[in-house]
């Protein structure tokens, strides 16, 4: 039978509608997977949980994604594509300041939509390195492209020093936008515009007062370990969790790193969650010790802040006893995760208190100290990922250049002469 134009149009329309329904359902599954990953990590996510969130049965989810690993990889890829799209839009702005301002605005707009229930959160990328091949290589290549495009917001580098500085700025900008969802919930949605302006102010001009100079004093954080064996487990676990995420760093892998048995692991700790909690406590205690010792040493509050940040960055770059990345939070039970975020916020408030006192004495610029403190938490926490970058130059230069991104701002070139 001959097919008329009307019939052909009807078939095409049906196919288009079918394609739209397929994409809509697939996008809903990816959004649900992102929520599950953010709460339980990629390895903790299950088809059953994702199906429940979307209102489907498990078989319906497997129609779109045959393996759980493929679903997690697709959720990560969706995050990376969203980041690349925002960076492309930001890049269209006229100069580096306008580009960074636009990129921040796009992130804030997205978080506001999530808060209003008009959008869903992106999947955090903490488990990216723990994905299986062939997904792992593809995803890491996309992540490198995200980093390159972020670095490109500052334009082409004229020399190696600018490449290094732009790389540090890109890393700090990305990590701050990743950390935003954790602390932005403490504000009412109608305050988001104000928070955006205050955070951009820190990005643009830093926190240092007009006469501030970068002359940090080293803080001695060395102290005797009461349980050397347990301390070795905590340090090995911290390094592996930072690199592979909570689920990627298995007990067996941590034990193998130390060349001991799993039984030896359980001699020191009862369960893996206990290990992560202990790692966080060690990390938070390290930051608190640095803050306290800086206060004990006296000096201006700018001097105290600079010394604390310099010491913590040196700890991260040295890699001997790094701080645990906040990316491990997604693998922890909700109650424990809340307790860890609360401790982080208490430490941030101490940074804020130092800045408030510095503003009063004139050594620190008038900024929103609570916002700036959260930016500093992201800065020092994420420095572990820049250890290879730091290894390409003298340690003091690496610390000064990385710290300059927020202490003096993302557009201050004084770090190039350090």
Q: What's this entry about, in short?
A:
The chain has 418 residues and is mostly helical. The chain is built from 17 helices and no strands. The protein folds into two domains: 13-156, Tetracycline Repressor, domain 2 (Orthogonal Bundle), CATH 1.10.357.10; 228-417, Tetracycline Repressor, domain 2 (Orthogonal Bundle).
The secondary-structure class comes to mainly alpha
**Strands, total number:** 0
**Poorly predicted parts:** none
Fraction of residues in β-strands: under 5%
Q: What integer value in Å does the Rg equal?
A: 23 Å
The helix count comes to 17
| CATH topology type of the largest domain | Tetracycline Repressor, domain 2
Report how far apart the termini are: 81 Å
Q: Main β-sheet: number of strands, strand sense, barrel status?
A: none
Q: How much is the average pLDDT? A: 87
Coarse morphology: globular
Q: H/E order of the elements?
A: HHHHHHHHHHHHHHHHH
Total tally of structural domains: 2
Q: Find the CATH superfamily of the largest domain.
A: Tetracycline Repressor, domain 2
| Helix content, binned percent | 55-70%
CATH architecture of the largest domain, by name, is Orthogonal Bundle
CATH class of the largest domain: Mainly Alpha
């Amino acid at each position: 039978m001959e097919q008329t134009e009307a019939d052909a149009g009807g078939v095409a329309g049906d196919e288009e509608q079918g394609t739209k329904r397929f994409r809509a359902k697939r996008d809903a599954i990816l959004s649900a997977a992102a929520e599950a990953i953010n709460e339980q990590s990629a390895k903790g996510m299950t088809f059953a949980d994702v199906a429940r969130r979307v209102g489907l049965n498990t078989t319906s989810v497997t129609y779109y994604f045959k393996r759980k690993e493929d679903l997690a990889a697709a959720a990560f890829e969706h995050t990376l594509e969203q980041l690349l799209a925002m960076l492309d839009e930001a890049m269209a702005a006229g100069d580096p300041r306008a580009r960074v301002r636009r990129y921040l605005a796009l992130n804030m707009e997205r978080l506001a939509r999530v808060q209003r229930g008009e959008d869903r959160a992106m999947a955090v990328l903490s488990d990216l390195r723990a994905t299986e091949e062939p997904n792992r290589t593809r995803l890491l290549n996309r992540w490198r492209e995200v980093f390159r495009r972020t670095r490109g917001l500052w334009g082409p580098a004229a020399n190696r020093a600018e490449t290094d500085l732009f790389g540090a700025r890109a890393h700090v900008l990305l990590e701050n936008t990743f950390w935003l969802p954790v602390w932005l919930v403490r504000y009412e949605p109608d305050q988001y515009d104000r928070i955006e302006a205050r955070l951009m102010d820190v990005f643009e001009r830093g926190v240092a007062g007009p006469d501030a100079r970068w002359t940090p004093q080293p803080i001695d954080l060395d102290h005797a370990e009461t349980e050397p064996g347990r301390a070795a487990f905590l340090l090995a676990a911290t390094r592996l969790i930072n690199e592979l995420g909570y689920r990627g760093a298995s007990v067996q892998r941590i034990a193998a790193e130390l060349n001991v048995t799993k039984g030896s692991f359980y001699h020191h700790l009862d369960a893996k969650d206990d290990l992560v909690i202990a790692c966080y406590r060690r990390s938070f205690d390290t930051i608190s010790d640095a803050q306290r010792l800086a206060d004990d040493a006296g000096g201006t509050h700018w001097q105290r802040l600079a010394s604390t940040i310099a010491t913590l960055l040196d700890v991260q770059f040295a890699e001997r006893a790094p701080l645990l990345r906040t990316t491990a939070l997604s693998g922890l039970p909700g109650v424990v995760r809340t307790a860890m975020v609360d401790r982080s916020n208490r430490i941030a408030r101490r940074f804020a208190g130092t800045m408030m006192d510095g503003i009063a004495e004139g050594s620190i610029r008038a900024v929103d100290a609570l916002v700036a403190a959260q930016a500093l938490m992201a800065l020092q926490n994420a420095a572990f990922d820049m250890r290879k970058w730091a290894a390409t130059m003298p340690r003091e230069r690496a610390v000064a250049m990385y710290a300059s991104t927020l202490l003096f701002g993302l557009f201050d070139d004084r770090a190039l002469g350090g």
